[in-house]
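Give me the fold.
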Amino acid sequence: MLKEELRRKPLRDKIDDLSEDQAHFVLLSVFYSGDKSRYISEDPNRYASKCKEELLKRTRKDDKIDTVISFIDNLNTLYLEKYELKWLEGNEREQIFVYNYLVGNNMISPSRFGISRKKDIKDTVHNILNNLIKGLNNRENVISDLDFKKDVVEVTQKVWHVLEANDNYSKWLKKADLDWVRNYLVEKNLYRYDVENYVGNNNRELRLLASLDAIDIKQGQSYTHSPSKTIIIDKMKRAWSQQKYRDAGKTKKPYHLPLTKKTKARLEKMAEVEGLSETAMLDHLINMSYEIDYTDKNGKDLY
């Protein structure tokens, strides 16, 4: 009995030194292969503050004291601390994008962690990153698990900066009809219904931004604001402009503008394709060009 107690004491000491997040990571890694979907707490009313207690009980119950102690001793080469994701704090859109990027690029299956919810999306991203090794196939362990996870964090941060630098729709969205945008994305099979799980029903703009952010998300480390995404966004903006013109129903003041035959023929063709009158088409083209080349990102005149 004394020998057993001496064996158990270092276990309790080591678990007591862990944070609750670290204890949760050890619990999942040792007993559930990092798979949260298989994790069933013995305590139905378990709160995060009880992870250390549960880890201690489970270790003793399964007689894995040596295994858990060894795992904890190597934690500094395995565990990604939450402060590595400090850049995600306070930006829900960014958190959603990173989550979708990791899942969309087959870093790991979302089923291993259940459905991400609004309150714990950052924790879900943290959990995904901490279990990346088990979600990748045939990877040579040439660097430590922790260094690999840090590399992935760095990649996801760079990917977000690429999207942020090329964002040409978030300011536009504030001026558009959100119901129209949602219907348009649904019709084009671009609306992400899963986003509703972790955004909720109140923030419609965030749900639409998340759907737009997810266009062409499956590019891996070579992520760019792809030409296809540019075309998709431009078509959406153009369709919204056309809808506004149709809804306005304003009588245009006649104005004669001499055009060459070639230009007139092209205008006729464009108006026919877009389903607009020549006047509406010309009005649309002038305003669209003006907004692109003669206004800043906030829509203010440059000249």
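The first helix runs from residue 2 to 16.
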